[in-house]
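can u do me a favor
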């Protein structure tokens, strides 16, 4: 059996299943007054909408993933930088040296804990700030 015979058998079985007579043509598929045409047109429209939706989702998800990767890389770099700070005890005199002058970091001591406030040098802390 060749491809042509297989296609004709398939077409005949679909026509029998849908109870379509021999006057059916492919133009019937686009005739909205015919039940088969209506279902075909609605199905084709839904498939087109879903395909366009999937394309836009793929486009925007890839952009969101790029932004997420950049943010994650920045967070990892910041965490690595914070880990460079060696934990130690400071006296008040030692802590006063880390005031942000001469490119030194800014350390703040609160309740016996020392915090690195260097990231807020330009906004809250540093020379001339409170």
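np, heres the sequence
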């Amino acid at each position: 059996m060749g491809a042509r015979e297989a296609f004709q058998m398939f077409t005949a079985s679909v026509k029998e299943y849908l109870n379509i007579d021999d006057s059916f043509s492919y133009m019937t598929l686009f005739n909205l007054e015919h039940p088969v045409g209506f279902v075909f047109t609605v199905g084709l429209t839904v498939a087109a909408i879903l395909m366009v939706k999937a394309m836009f989702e793929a486009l925007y998800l890839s952009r969101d993933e790029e932004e997420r990767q950049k943010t994650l890389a920045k967070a990892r770099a910041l965490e690595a930088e914070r880990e460079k700070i060696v934990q130690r005890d400071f006296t008040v005199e030692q802590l006063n040296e880390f005031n942000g002058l001469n490119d030194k970091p800014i350390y703040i001591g609160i309740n016996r804990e020392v915090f690195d406030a260097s990231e807020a040098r330009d906004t809250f802390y540093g020379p001339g700030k409170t």
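Helices lie at 3-17, 35-83, 92-97. hope that helps!!
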